[in-house]
Amino acid sequence: MMTRSVRIQAPDLIRHVISRGNAKQRIFLDDRDYRQFIHLLSDMVDEFKIDCWNYCLMPNHYHATLQPTRPNLSEAVRRLNGSYALWWNKRHDRVGHVFQGRFRDQIVDRDSYLLTLTRYVVMNPVRAGLVAEPGDWRWSSYGATVGTCEAPAFLAAARTLNLFGQAEVSGLRARFAAFVSATPDSTQLDRIQSGDKVLGGTEFREHVAACLSLG
């Protein structure tokens, strides 16, 4: 019998979190479902003191880039998924699992992979053929980051923009939008789409391993 891998709970590491609907089922059936999940995401970020760099809700799964300030990622995401599942089953008169097992997370090196991840998360609806441009999808952080809609209070949009250097906010937003629209680094994209649990170079991976050994 295979044992579960130990999830590293060390704070401050940046995580790419993905959680999918059970048996690939849709977990967002209409606008009210999307809005409720974002409301619960806001509550979770506030309660567990987690920085949310970005997010994207898709019909049958979601992505979020999260940076816990405390060793509580597993508890936080379990609370988020559990609260939404209870609400969703009640609203849609369903029973059983809403999400497919454990959520997946990748630990991401800020210096080498985070920029690519910012693009990857908000480009999901485009890759899936749901919209032509990332700004056409209402259920991601893209619009809030580029300033075409009001940013929710829980979104750390400034953290993403600060990855693009020093400039006025309008300039940083333009740089972010241009980066998202550019052709991605295929090697890095493949790594993000892989099952790799740590995305970074040797020194970063050794740092993560040390976090695991420290418990």
Write the layout of secondary structure elements.
Layout: E1 14-20, H1 31-48, E2 50-58, E3 61-68, H2 73-92, E4 104-108, H3 114-122, H4 124-127, H5 142-146, H6 157-161, H7 169-181, H8 186-193, E5 198-199, H9 202-214
Parallel strand pairs: 4-5
Antiparallel strand pairs: 1-3, 1-4, 2-3
- Give the total of domains: 1
Shape designation: globular
**Reported CATH architecture:** 2-Layer Sandwich
**Could you give the order of the helices and strands?**
EHEEHEHHHHHHEH
Q: Could you describe the largest sheet, including whether it forms a barrel?
A: 5 strands, mixed
In terms of DSSP E residues, the strand content is 5-15%
Helix content: 40-55%
In the sheet with the most strands, the strands line up as 2-3-1-4-5
Radius of gyration: 17 Å
What structural class do the secondary elements suggest? alpha+beta
Let me know the number of strands: 5
CATH superfamily: Transposase IS200-like
What is the end-to-end distance?
24 Å
The CATH topology is what? Answer: Alpha-Beta Plaits
Number of helices: 9
**Low-confidence blocks of residues:** none
| Global mean pLDDT | 93
